[in-house]
Write a structure and sequence with these properties.
homotetramer; 286 residues; alpha/beta; Rossmann fold; Tumour Suppressor Smad4; 8-stranded mixed β-sheet; 6-stranded antiparallel β-sheet
Chain lengths: 286, 286, 286, 286
Amino acid sequence: MSQPIRSVGLVAKGGSREAVRSTNELADWLERRDIRVAIEEEVAAAREPGFNGDLYDPVNGYDLVVVLGGDGTLLAAGRAVCPGVPILGVNLGQLGFLTEIARAELYPSLVEILAGRFAVEERSLLEITVVRADEELAFYRVFNDAVIAKSALSRIIELTLKADGGLVTTYRSDGLIISTPTGSTAYNLSAGGPIVNPLLPAVVLTPICPHTFSLRPIVVPDQSRIEVTLETQEAEVYLTLDGQEGTKLRYLDTVRLIRAAKGVHLVRLSGRTFYDNLRGKLRWGG
Amino acid sequence: MSQPIRSVGLVAKGGSREAVRSTNELADWLERRDIRVAIEEEVAAAREPGFNGDLYDPVNGYDLVVVLGGDGTLLAAGRAVCPGVPILGVNLGQLGFLTEIARAELYPSLVEILAGRFAVEERSLLEITVVRADEELAFYRVFNDAVIAKSALSRIIELTLKADGGLVTTYRSDGLIISTPTGSTAYNLSAGGPIVNPLLPAVVLTPICPHTFSLRPIVVPDQSRIEVTLETQEAEVYLTLDGQEGTKLRYLDTVRLIRAAKGVHLVRLSGRTFYDNLRGKLRWGG
Amino acid sequence: MSQPIRSVGLVAKGGSREAVRSTNELADWLERRDIRVAIEEEVAAAREPGFNGDLYDPVNGYDLVVVLGGDGTLLAAGRAVCPGVPILGVNLGQLGFLTEIARAELYPSLVEILAGRFAVEERSLLEITVVRADEELAFYRVFNDAVIAKSALSRIIELTLKADGGLVTTYRSDGLIISTPTGSTAYNLSAGGPIVNPLLPAVVLTPICPHTFSLRPIVVPDQSRIEVTLETQEAEVYLTLDGQEGTKLRYLDTVRLIRAAKGVHLVRLSGRTFYDNLRGKLRWGG
Amino acid sequence: MSQPIRSVGLVAKGGSREAVRSTNELADWLERRDIRVAIEEEVAAAREPGFNGDLYDPVNGYDLVVVLGGDGTLLAAGRAVCPGVPILGVNLGQLGFLTEIARAELYPSLVEILAGRFAVEERSLLEITVVRADEELAFYRVFNDAVIAKSALSRIIELTLKADGGLVTTYRSDGLIISTPTGSTAYNLSAGGPIVNPLLPAVVLTPICPHTFSLRPIVVPDQSRIEVTLETQEAEVYLTLDGQEGTKLRYLDTVRLIRAAKGVHLVRLSGRTFYDNLRGKLRWGG
């Protein structure tokens, strides 16, 4: 990465005093190195004696974004960030799948990054459109997964899955998880889906509590145009995005998914592989 | 069964014209044989030239209850019926797990039953109490299952399971299914639980999409006093009963379950075994 | 347990010097208390200056059998022991499902047991007969499980399962595990079967890698007369017992299973429940 | 496909009189169209009045190979065939995953193919090397899967998995299935693995009856250099290839897998998609 880093956006875990304090400390550290810093309102509000610098806006093209929090904070920041901006995840708690470094490694790591000694790993995003009566109702991006699921009180629902215009199958289940490889170790895994290496250009489709046993998880190319239509009339059904946002679906609504042209650029410093993370997080081999 | 049948309660699938017609036809047939018949309001309303007989009340101790509908109708009738009353399920649609005979077999079967030539098979019921702040808030009976599950928009919930006062485990999952053997082939099966022969004095506990892989389905004695406590504060969580009724649970609510002293007495005419039904319904061996 | 303990059989893990040493130490301790002790040949051979006491014979009705080893040693001893003799499992390694106490607790525990302060918990055994051309070819007892499985080089096999004379289903799979509740946490669990509380009078039937998805694990009464017949002609198929013994099966051989009239009587000292063991061994809730 | 078809190799299902008869009939039909035909010995032996044409040799570069049999025959032919030669699978029995047409469609389909009106779909092959004490002991190609599995009488085995030189995990299980996308609907599916669309450059690794619950199926890039080493000393362990060939593995043997540079070129005539086949074969949505 030859381009020098002159502007850094800082994202802190919401509602965490530790994250706010660490972020302000980091802002000072960066400004002392003549780097322009943008911070969120919650962080700015905690600054003395008042703050008149830049507020963080994800649509801006910073040279680097640093996220202080856990995988959840990084998911939200990753979905929103301007395509191509490198993101560094700093874990304030326990080891994450997505966050690259621990709190204690922050400043030594930044010295490396400012000197251009880092790699980026692209993770795919999915673009999701909700279509109702031929109108595009809503648009989202997800980093982990889009989940279509019935509410607790509704009965089994029916979903039709198409890929590239052709019928794949009809699910009778509690719902369906459409996951990126990054999301394959999240909700997908709890529902019985496989782990997928993030290098694969793939999407995983895993039904939740399927009524038909043969409806097993399926891994498909992420270039497929995937369409899921709700075929049940009376049920209360929701689309949730990265487990963080949600919207209600109606009878015959169609959810369209396609890989986003650009994914999230995660900053990589360690030699830790995807498999090393799996062993650490899933207690593999234990 | 030596006791002669002098009173019969008739239960029809709600909202089904075919069920109403069949039930009234059956009521006439029984009355012609000097048997006192009780019917539901929906059925009575369809009678010409008006009806002044008995209305069906599940707390009455009929000598026999005939249910015309599917497994769902039988589930609801079975939960409510006076303990020990034999119930005959007549399937108006496709083969059910619980309904014993098809529509075409109704009258020949009744001739056998009125002559005392039938067996009964007892199926267990669970009694369920919701306890909030040491008060018994609600009481239910279930024939298939009690399900504690988060709503579509809530995150993973935490449930503590105790048996006979001792800790069993803590679940981090979308929910937990507590199923009778009868219910083991219903929702439990979709969530990965085992099939349990109804002769076993057992209850199945199957988590829905558990976060921890080792939290496998477990089969316990139905004499256990089972208690499930909701340990998550912010989530929207529901208790549903046989997939037909539901109630909202709050933080620290406890759901207590115990086998009902008396179960449902299903009338058995055929030599069809539980395994024969499984093969037919689940396409076993296909 | 009012009957005083006057004779104790000692079983040591085979090939373990630690087990031999601990067993001889224990034999001395018991003899000093005027208790008649029987030891195995391997242990006797290690005694100085030679041994002319009793050799352990499982068919003898000792007042107590003490097993020094792990779950595997206890499995083998439990299968062979005279019905009704209380068995105490002493774990020389890590916590077991079956062994009740650790090495360090041995002598304090024996003081309690000799004073009659202990409980016994009965665990079921299965009796297994291999029938070939109407002749009873071999007879076994198992504590954990009987497994019918194809060899690595054979293709899928077909097994017919009957219960009490009626067809249950036909499996097309790598094999079938027939497990006691005790064995439910062993191989059965790896193959996707449920955990079953040992208090339940049940047997678990779990196919290994079934070809048909609907062939799910099934829990049946242990009073069922279970028969499994090998329907594949060319395959190399084995019956293995508690993972410790094995025999080859031929085309049309039938394996019959029924609960043994008497089970294994495990000595219980602690208040640890089955669920406590599960949490400890399976890292439940971790 | 602009190149005219002048030579065709014919492969018939072994031991099938129907396959032999159909193949000879097809040979005559092709020769009448001045196409040079190569047949197998078993087919040649059935020809009257004796045969002095070409014998089929998979290393020859025919313009087309036609396989008459089922998926098994096509698997074996596909592994052996010269890279890049188009293969047409003709199903003599029930619908296959790999065979493209039914017996009745054979001649109309060939008219299309000879006129150049067909597509080819590349399916990946894996190249497998068994390494013992740094020596390459054996080399294979597989179309569906390579399976490393213990024999029925051995206990659980330990396998170390590496990808591109780095540790992935250590399996304690009955074995491990390494499957192409084509093989994902075969043994992999019985062992709980996901379905993988053949367009994905992926390999599926699915443990057989794993001892550790978190060892879930994993999908990795087929460009990975995968190495599996047998870490158990006493066990009897086999490597099987497409379920059709096998070899014994020893302690510390390593199985290396990599995608073959060229895959199998299946002739495609219908518009049937991979998903259409799944629905037909797996009774999806039924």
